[in-house]
Design a protein that fits this description.
By secondary structure, the chain is mainly alpha-helical. Helices cover 93% and strands 0% of the residues.
Length: 121
């Protein structure tokens, strides 16, 4: 169970790092020096195209992250429920074992008393 949760967390970390990859084209464009006015239109068009691409990339990545977070939350809820059930079962078994020991002690005392009483009769 914890292995699955750990794996899901690692997947989410990879998805979050994808956000940096999404922004990479914008970093390249913002570092371009414009010396000619004729290149300005080309760079603006490229910037607009890349901004749209980055927006789609970020939205898709955020949907993936949301889905992964929901999955992790569900896994944690399932784990918590399983753990609480295990605690309850363990407590019941412990109590049953203690009751059995007490019953055995009582039974041994009764048998011993009965044997001793039989010897004196």
């Amino acid at each position: 169970m914890t292995s699955n949760i750990g794996s899901s967390v690692v997947d989410s970390q990879h998805s979050v790092s994808q956000l940096a990859v999404c922004a990479e084209p914008l970093k390249i464009l913002t570092s371009i020096d414009i010396y000619e006015e004729t290149r300005l239109g080309e760079i603006v068009d490229s910037f607009v195209h890349n901004i749209q691409h980055v927006d789609v990339c970020i939205q898709n990545t955020m949907q993936i992250i949301d889905s992964q977070v929901t999955d992790i939350e569900q896994q944690l809820a399932d784990y918590t429920q399983t753990y609480e059930a295990w605690l309850h079962i363990t407590k019941k078994r412990r109590q049953d074992a203690e009751n059995c020991k007490l019953d055995m002690d009582t039974l041994v005392k009764k048998i011993t008393k009965h044997i001793v009483h039989g010897l004196h009769s």
